[in-house]
Amino acid sequence: xxxxxxxxxxxxxxxxxxxxxxxxxxxxxxxxxxxxxxxxxxxxxxxxxxxxxxxxxxxxxxxxxxxxxxxxxxxxxxxxxxxxxxxxxxxxxxxxxxxxxxxxxxxxxxxxxxxxxxxxxxxxxxxxxxxxxxxxxxxxxxxxxxxxxxxxxxxxxxxxxxxxxxxxxxxxxxxxxxxxxxxxxxxx
Length: 188
Ligand SMILES: NC(=O)c1ccc[n+]([C@@H]2O[C@H](COP(=O)([O-])OP(=O)(O)OC[C@H]3O[C@@H](n4cnc5c(N)ncnc54)[C@H](OP(=O)(O)O)[C@@H]3O)[C@@H](O)[C@H]2O)c1
Known about the structure:
With 188 residues, the chain is of the alpha/beta class. Helix content is 22%, strand content 28%.
């Protein structure tokens, strides 16, 4: 059974030239010193309420390893107590009860396991997994946050797309730190 009102969202932040990390995986460029006069402020109360609407997260193993590194450096775990599905063929260490590892057919995971159980399903990276999600036609929307920086080379937002994917621009927000968030519906 597939829940008809479940929704799969892809969300990542990228440089203006379309990279989500440097080639070696570093994301030090995510914090910039830009200021866009007239841009919206990120209201912490709104962000907290919004995060509550997300029911589960899906990520690739390399994104998981980055999240663990962040946590080890004292920045905390970004995914709260929400179920978090990590794609890997390896035997990685499971650091909390909310983390579940999955290997294999992504369409089966989404359609048979996640959609019946969760309404708001967020793919949070990286490029390999988000590319796979789009290629398989699993995503309903893409949220693309453009950071005001060019980094020249790196890991692309979507790995290896083999066909065009038509989108509908549904929302645009510009923030005081110069970040622009684009929300697109995937047109099937
Ligand atoms: N800027 C942002 O918003 C943002 C967001 C997220 C991540 N990032 C960055 O992006 C980088 C990681 O992205 P990435 O594209 O290199 O990797 P990724 O998508 O995070 O992970 C790819 C890995 O996931 C596993 N995988 C994928 N599909 C699978 C499947 N169907 N079954 C089992 N395992 C599967 C494989 O890992 P195994 O080798 O373990 O099998 C694969 O190597 C990191 O540097 C991270 O910091 C940035």
